[in-house]
Amino acid sequence: MRLLAWIVDLIVIVIISSIIGFILGALGGTFNFYYTFLEGNDLFWRIFGIVVAWLYFSILECSKLQATFGKKLLRMKVTDMNAEKVSFKIATVRYFSKILSGIILGIGYLMIGFTKNKQGLHDKIAQTIVLRK
C-alpha cells in the first residue's frame, strides 16, 4: 500500500515540478522540456527536484492532513510513536533518512514488511509510524 501511495505522490511531484519548472524556465528564458525533465543533467534542476520533493513530503506530513496525497488516498497517515502529529523537523528527518533506506540496497524499505510496526529504517530514525485509518 505504501508503494502505491509513493507512486501517486511521484506523479503529483512530477506535475508540481513541471509546472513550477516551466514557469521558472520561462521567466529565465532557459526552459527546455527535453533537457530539463528527460535528461536532467543541469545541477540546478536536480536540486530543484530534491527541494520540491522534500517540501512536498515534509509539509504535507506535518500538516493537519498528516499525509501526502498518495497516503491520504489510501487512508494512511504519518505520526510519531504516540500517534501524534509530527513536526516539520521530524518530517524532514524522515524524508532525508529515506536516502539511507535506499542507499543500502533498499533494505531500509524492505524492513517495512518485517518489523512489528511496519517501520522502514527512515521511520525508525525519525521515530515515526505510518498508520492506516
A few lines on this structure:
This protein is mainly alpha-helical. It has helices at residues 2-28, 33-39, 43-62, 69-73, 88-103, 107-110, 121-126, and strands spanning 76-80, 128-132.
Derived structural class: mainly alpha
Reading the helices and strands in chain order gives HHHHEHHHE
Q: Give the DSSP E fraction (strand runs of 2 or more residues).
A: 5-15%
Principal-axes geometry comes out as: globular
* pLDDT averaged over residues: 89
Number of domains: 1
Distance between the termini: 13 Å
Q: From the alpha-carbon coordinates, what is the Rg to the nearest angstrom?
A: 16 Å
Biggest beta-sheet profile: 2 strands, antiparallel
**Helical percent range?**
55-70%
Describe this structure in words.
The protein has helices spanning 2-28, 33-39, 43-62, 69-73, 88-103, 107-110, 121-126; strands spanning 76-80, 128-132. The two termini are 13 Å apart. It is mainly alpha-helical and 133 residues long. The longest helix is centred in the first third of the chain and has 27 residues, at 2-28. 64% of the residues lie in helices and 8% in strands. Strands 1-2 form a two-stranded antiparallel sheet. The mean pLDDT is 89. It has one domain.
Overview features:
single chain, 133 residues, mainly alpha, two-stranded antiparallel ribbon, 7 helices, 2 strands, 64% helix, 8% strand
Please write out the topology:
Blueprint: H1 2-28, H2 33-39, H3 43-62, H4 69-73, E1 76-80, H5 88-103, H6 107-110, H7 121-126, E2 128-132
Antiparallel strand pairs: 1-2
Helix pairs in contact: 1-3, 3-5
